[in-house]
Design a protein that fits this description.
The complex is a heterodimer of chains A (about 110) and B (about 110). Chain A has about 110 residues and is mainly β. Chain A is about 0% helix and about 50% strand. In chain B, strand 7 and strand 8 form a beta hairpin. Chain B is globular and about 40 Å long. The chains are: A mainly beta (about 110), B mainly beta (about 110).
């Protein structure tokens, strides 16, 4: 069965420090990869996505992620976080062999002043 | 600006009531999805639809049904609401290839 794993449920980080949120998935065959952010009591907003081409993907708010096919990973990074980055982050995968999205369980990022 | 609209942000219903959650998208998307979100469990797929009148069960369909009579509208129905269905419900839509899921603002349902 297809699966998406976010290893860290909570990540505290000081303001202006770098952060990496990890995401692994079960198979790299024909995948589309996504990171979404959710602020309290809101829906999910797309941060970035990988469909094809360059494995380094840049998104909104200074975030970027790298598709690593051999390690089946799609880790999210930001070199310097702000208080406003405090939110829940979800990794998602869509396999071309299926017709739905698979989501990780989420990582709660807390930026400490 | 593309949009997925859910009919209610907050709902409070009594146990045993029939509950309708409505979702409308304006992007002419083929695929539409209903998810349930609970702390620590992420997003769990209830049902999805890839065409009018077509539907497929997701991971947790028990206690729910759906209706898609028009391409832009996808309804989630709780036949007899129970307290364990208290949750955040998220609707999403996508093109046929699932190149991106667009989400509504969510409906926080409380069943008392």
């Amino acid at each position: 069965a297809q699966s998406v794993t976010q290893l860290d449920s909570q990540v505290p980080v000081f303001e202006e420090a770098p952060v990496e949120l990890r995401c692994n998935y079960s198979s790299s065959v024909s995948v589309y990869l996504f990171w979404y952010v959710q602020y309290p009591n809101q829906g999910l907003q797309l941060l970035l996505k990988y469909l094809s081409g360059s494995t380094l993907v840049k998104g909104i708010n200074g975030f970027e992620a790298e598709f690593n096919k051999s390690q089946t990973s799609f880790h999210l990074r930001k070199p310097s976080v702000h208080i406003s980055d405090t939110a829940e982050y979800f990794c998602a995968v869509s396999w071309n062999t299926g017709n739905q999205f698979y989501f990780g369980t989420g990582t709660s990022l807390t930026v400490i002043p | 600006d593309v949009k997925v609209t859910q009919s209610s942000r907050y709902l409070v219903k009594r146990t045993g009531e029939k509950v309708f959650l409505e979702c409308v998208q304006d992007m002419d998307h083929e695929n539409m999805f209903w998810y349930r979100q609970d702390p620590g469990l992420g997003l769990r797929l209830i049902y999805f639809s890839y065409d009018v009148k077509m539907k497929e069960k997701g991971d947790i369909p028990e206690g729910y049904s759906v209706s898609r009579e028009k391409k832009e509208r996808f309804s989630l129905i709780l036949e007899s609401a129970s307290t364990n269905q208290t949750s955040m419900y998220l609707c999403a839509s996508s093109d046929l290839l699932n190149t991106e899921a667009f989400f509504g603002q969510g409906t926080r349902l409380t069943v008392v």
